[in-house]
Specification:
The complex is a heterodimer of chains A (316) and B (316). Chain A is 36% helix and 25% strand. Chain A has 316 residues and is an alpha/beta fold. Chain A has a single domain, classed as Rossmann fold (3-Layer(aba) Sandwich), CATH 3.40.50.300. Chain A has an 8-stranded mixed beta sheet with strand order 6-7-8-3-9-10-12-11, sandwiched between helices. Chain A is globular, with a radius of gyration of 21 Å. Chain B is flat and about 105 Å long. Chain B has 316 residues and is mainly alpha-helical. At the A-B interface, helix 2, helix 3 and helix 5 of A face helix 2, helix 10 and helix 11 of B.
Chain lengths: 316, 316
Amino acid sequence: MSGQNDREVLLSLRNVEISFDVGGKHKFKAVQDASFDIYRGETFALVGESGSGKTTIGRAIMRINPLSAGEILFEGKRISGKLSKQDDMNVIRSIQMIFQDPAASLNERATIEYCVSEGLYNFHLYKNEEERIAKVDRALEEVGLLPEHKSRYPHEFSGGQRQRVGIARALIMEPKLVVADEPISALDVSIRAQVLNLMNKLKNEKALTYLFIAHDLSVVRFIADRIAVIHLGRIVEIAETEELFAHPLHPYTVSLLSAVPMPDPIIEKQREPIVYTETTEEKTGPDYEMRELLPGHFVYCSPEQGKEYLKQLENQ
Amino acid sequence: MDMLNNPVQEENLDNLFERADFDELESERIAAPRYSYWKSVWKTFFKNKFTVGVAVLLLLIIGFALIQPLHSGYSPVLTPNINNASMKFLKPSAEHIFGTDHVGNEVFDAVWAGARNSIIISFVCTALNMLIGIPIGALWGFSKKMDKWMIEVYNIISNVPFLLLAMILSYVLGAGMRSLIITMTCTEWIFVAYFIRTQVMIIRDREYNMASKCLGTKTWTMILKNILPYLISVIMTYVSRQIPSLISYEVFLSYMGLGLGTTNASLGRTISLYTSYMNGYPHLFWIPVGVLALISISLYIVGQKLADAADPRTHI
């Protein structure tokens, strides 16, 4: 992509398609023709409504969901499909995930020590027991927990604490890319900021790259460098965060942004949400593709529509 | 009102309150006492007086059944009083606790010798079924490839009539404890495996297992650390139903003449022999049946209560 050539691509999705068997010959395409690059050191957000396929993409990167077409490259190497054992181990270590529901994603019958050590055990990332315990202590301290929590069970913790255990468990592997699948949507509003700030702090300390999957635009605006908007399994717009909020081009993005509630009651009352339905906008066609309408700003459209979008932008 | 404006009063208030600093780490501390799974299981189990009573009764019965026959040396082949008419068909009394039977033997000795064999067989068979069934079932639930052919094996084995199989095996292997154990394990394990398979499938795709997969945990580690600890309670329920049901199987097979044979004491054979004297001497029939019921019911109650206590939801 022009204008960003100076940055190193860490993860790249090329025409990724993910489909699920729905019984018989019929297949449901959860994600179609998704292509984007994530640069090293950035926070890339994937935004869309529920059922749009954003979690499916995240899981495809974690190699939980297999691709039905296209490929995923990590540091230039293909990681989709079958891998050699060595590559497989490397990818597992390099890409880690933070899960949505901290209550469901921790093993309730294991102590925090085991939960955090699990990756260390699997890759034998320690020389002796003392080193492993030291690593676990450090990982817990980094996320603001106490070493004495090691012998506790997940159900003894609050939601925010559990999510921080989840973060510690992922980061102890020293990953390069972290896929965060709605990491704060299951948390109490009062501690969302705490977890987000922690994620930002750790990102700077450890030079991480995030793929941040979310549906909450105000959160995404706070944390993301670039945003991809996904609708019904198709990526419709990719742009830098402020650019996207300033000049949303695709009608779906416009409608999504108009749906953000305002804290000011007077403005909130006057806010008119723009409804986007498939009938108001032709969704797809043969000459539809991702087009760079503004520098670094890609929209899924036909050439005529692209011109129309730009004209609308000028008229504003 | 005057009191409020009193400067002396204000001074007192100042003394009452002390400035407290906010300590972030201190707020993470968990005040609750440490949780231990097995300690909580036993605590819950022993809380119920009735359960403890039944458990003590069960231990006494089992202990007695294991020891008493060694002392009495009862064998169905030995009939020292067969020619002594005054020793036959005696009613229960202080001298003959359960009375005597048609050959002048003590019913008390016959019942406990039979109970001993029934208990040994059912415990050994249950242990074997679990040892074979649980690992196979756990793998079966995990592997979709294995599921495809295992389900066919299950269909075949579960459609073999049990009685037919028992008859063939008793002809081939001869009567006796060993052949009875083989009869009751050679097909029974697959039902245990099938049960475990279904349970594994229910929790296999939960988020914490996905998290373990993303951390590179191997299947066996996942079975041991993520799956089986969750199944302790349901496995206990299964065991608590299996032991009494195998006791009645043994009784049934011995009653049919397919069980332990004429040389071994058996509750089933004892009941089947005594059934013919039910009209004249009902105690001959009801005493062994009563002992059988007492063993089965107390085993079932203790097993169920243990299973309940093993469920962490009851630990609060």
